[in-house]
Design brief:
Largest sheet: 7 strands, mixed
Number of strands: 13
Order of helices and strands: EHEEEEEEEEEEEE
Strand content: over 45%
Distance between the termini: 25 Å
């Protein structure tokens, strides 16, 4: 298990060796499947952001994210940084904000969403948009 806050800032390294490609800026989540779908990283402070499908990730550890390919995917989904995002239930009630997300770095499955109002299991995730993460009311 790893936390999004542990992955943010890690160097992105090519699997075959060599210097860093950049540092992780965020992870994109597909709320419907409760998985991490893409990793986003930037080379330097002014470098452009690169987006890779999670399938390109070879391994994630406490020291680095290793990728097999740095080729950008054909289709890049909209990105909403889950950390700090507002949470609403599907009935429209506020449910705090996201503090962190636990995930399995091998399968990319979300294990739990930690919020200002407690832990939310991944099976309650409904959708993620500009305004909020939507969860099932129970």
């Amino acid at each position: 298990m790893m936390l999004f806050t542990e992955v943010r800032g890690l160097p992105v390294l090519p699997r075959s060796g060599g210097g860093p490609l950049g540092a992780v800026t965020s992870l994109t989540v597909d709320a419907a499947s409760a998985t991490v779908s893409h990793v986003r990283f930037r080379h330097g402070r002014l470098g452009g952001e690169t987006v890779l499908a999670w399938d390109a990730v070879h391994s994630v550890g406490p020291g680095a994210v290793r990728v097999g390919s740095a080729d950008a995917p054909g289709t890049v989904p909209p990105h909403h940084d889950l950390l700090g995002h507002r949470i609403l239930t599907d009935t429209g009630n506020g449910h705090g904000t996201v503090l962190d997300v636990a995930f399995d770095p091998r399968t990319a499955r979300i294990l739990a969403v930690f919020t200002t109002r407690g832990e939310v299991p991944p099976d309650r995730l409904v959708g993620l948009g500009d305004y909020a993460l939507v969860i099932g009311a129970h």
